[in-house]
Amino acid sequence: MSNDSSSGRVAAELERWIDAANPGSKLPSTRALVARHGVSPVTVQQALRILVGRGRIETVPGVGTFTLAVRTARVTDFEWQTAALGAAHPLLPDAPLALQSPPESSIALHSGYPDRSLLPERLVRAAIGRAARSETVLSRPPSAGLPALRSWFATELTTVGAADVAAVTARDVVITPGSQGALVTVFRALVGAGRPLLIESPTYWGAILAARQAGVDLIPVPSSASGPDPVDVDRAFTETGARAFYIQTGFASPTGTVWPADRKQRILDLARTHRAFLIEDDAAHDFAIDETPIPLAAQDRDGHVVYLRSLTKSVAPGMRVAAIIARGPARDRLFADTQAEEMYVSGVLQEAALDVVTQPAWRTHLRRLAEQLGDRRDLLIDALTNHAPQVRVETPPRGGLNLWARLPDRTDLPDLISRCSRAGLIVGSGDEWFPAEAPGRHLRLNYAGPSPERYPEAARILAECLAR
Amino acid sequence: MSNDSSSGRVAAELERWIDAANPGSKLPSTRALVARHGVSPVTVQQALRILVGRGRIETVPGVGTFTLAVRTARVTDFEWQTAALGAAHPLLPDAPLALQSPPESSIALHSGYPDRSLLPERLVRAAIGRAARSETVLSRPPSAGLPALRSWFATELTTVGAADVAAVTARDVVITPGSQGALVTVFRALVGAGRPLLIESPTYWGAILAARQAGVDLIPVPSSASGPDPVDVDRAFTETGARAFYIQTGFASPTGTVWPADRKQRILDLARTHRAFLIEDDAAHDFAIDETPIPLAAQDRDGHVVYLRSLTKSVAPGMRVAAIIARGPARDRLFADTQAEEMYVSGVLQEAALDVVTQPAWRTHLRRLAEQLGDRRDLLIDALTNHAPQVRVETPPRGGLNLWARLPDRTDLPDLISRCSRAGLIVGSGDEWFPAEAPGRHLRLNYAGPSPERYPEAARILAECLAR
After folding, report:
1. At what angle do helices A347-357 and A121-132 cross, to 10 degrees?
2. What DSSP line would sit under B151-199, residue for residue?
3. Which residues in chain B are closer than 8 Å to A349, comparing Cβ atoms?
4. Which tens digits make up the pLDDT trace of B55-102?
5. Residue A327 to residue B84, Cβ atoms within 8 A
6. Fewer CB within 10 Å: N-end or C-end of chain B?
């Protein structure tokens, strides 16, 4: 919608007129509206389009613009649907807090997304503008994605790969409309309903949601500051016969953990032994601060690692583009699933995303972003240390967007969160990141949101709510 | 990718240089390349971006641009994946001919999409350009879609609705990234794997694909020039206990059928009797020629009709936006599925789609499109009548993009199609539109493709290939 305030004002005034008019009344001419509201014809047209969008008026070209009837609501009996739909299975959880939009006056530490000030706004707007003039507007890209974009994703992985690992090629890459779709596709196509999937605990809530959607049977494996213990992983593979393990080796959400190199090698060896897939989600790839972890996929010789990478969080929310990289028959299974599920992803978004990430300014942006994220992380840690010493951040993250904060064990988490919310601080419950019962009380605190200057205030509110 | 021919030429010349250079070689400076190739610095930058996209070079800001190693292919053993993946179920079909891109010199009557000359190109490019400057680039829209766009879809249906039917509201609308995703969501959330779904035969191949993806059990119901026979539908509901029927009441793909009003009413009554959903796909809504059918959803009082409408085909392939309209608990089931499956649809695409369809020029475009489609349809029918009398179009369609042509019963369809292809005519096999065995030999002939002036030639090729 246009943010133009005068068209919004004219629309609001016209809406009052429409409220009072009979349905089917003809609106005054554009010329008359221009004179009455003292605005330009363009503004009047924008106001009319807003009202069309709201379903209040209808334009009959060459005849005029008319008010529409607002039909009175009738009570409708949908009870028959209860039997037709059957029991809801699997019961999907409600939207987690991380997706909600709180009042603007609050301090928001709950989001999973970076604030708009951390996005490469000019690059993205210019890229979409160029894509609007490109061929991709009018043509269908191949179902697996634009070859040049697939090639870019492949090259990103190949350039950090071990010298004796075969290069990843564009053919190994399938583009999806965002990482959520990629997760569901991988779980559905490589695991399947009713079959076991090992998953780190805690882990990304979107992956837990995707796993429920795919109907897979989640097997939690505890994960500490150096990743999952190989003994636990080996036992879980053996006991369940699982053929896949969902992992985040670099800046895991929510903990920020980076697996040490030898731990990665051990888990890859276990996957080989158990002839299983590692589903590696590299969601925080672009949010490196102090180090740049090399994905496990870069060391994979035999198609054990299925690699996921999204551009939505780092480029812009409007840019729903992610990639699955897989080799061997697994790639074909995944491609068949995405093709049946969405046919293809808008070429406009693919073209614009490729434009952004191949600009030299993108690298400059990522370097500046690393500095900003580092400053914000340190600011939030300092604020907690100074004002909320009850809250412990055991391992300050070396990248990603979040602190994983441990609370005193006696904390009533839902109560704390609602007290904070009433005091103007929005925080995310750590419980949403556990595939089973949470073994302790945690908050995920995002340091990439708006208003970092309010972190001391946020820490004070948190301390007060904990003390009560 | 830029279509600029000079940047493409420079990229090709540089690629030959890279082929000969050692990996890690530094490329000459932009200034040197400008001088060597006699082009502008912008062209050189574009050429370099093409090569980055192809994975041939890498730019290290402030240092220079370097050639990348093309690693030699190594034979990799993916055999372990065979056991890990298990049997492929359900076996998804290959990409149908309707999605393939034939040689440009051929006459293409196989596509399911309108030619670019029939798209509102200027409107779409301007709308994406405006969206690039809008709020939607940097913000996440609500998971169910932009309220204004949902309101527009709701109004479209409400304005043709019966006066005593409650108005459809924005809350009843869920936006999805294209109609394929919408189909899978509806089949998965309202029917579910292993449960029966009635489906017209023939019907849209994408719906057959979506049904296989969702794992539902397809129950074909024959559909003639006036839609399915209520006796067949009643029996199929009774015998299978099905709770849903996938239908196209207006310009069905592939036949172009429009259900008469009394047939629509009978089928709606049957859905009420059997307490079942009608899943109405109004994919051809914007391709009306001689009449504008009113969707069955507009008569629905009790949430029996779940309505699907897409803008991708009529607005532009780059605009992946569709809507599901449903009322009652069904809407919540559908919303939960889309949220788990894709989180949200790019706000940029939603904003641009709304912009296009609320412009007065959109209505003008649809009127002109109706004339063009009518002319093309008549041209193709005339060409067949004059040059290929063996091919019968029993019911000339009053809208949509295709003729449904019956061939002599003895025709070897795969053989005919490959003979036509060799002779430069690409046609789609009718078999792809049947959920079970095809009862006759058909072709779907698209009259919305490129080069309508070649229809007589196309008809002659078809006649010759049939005669042999």
Report:
1. 140
2. HHHHHHHHTTS-TTSPPP-GGGEEEESSHHHHHHHHIIIII-TTSEEEE
3. 346, 348-349
4. 788 877 777 888 886 654 556 788 888 888 887 755 455 555 555 666
5. no
6. C
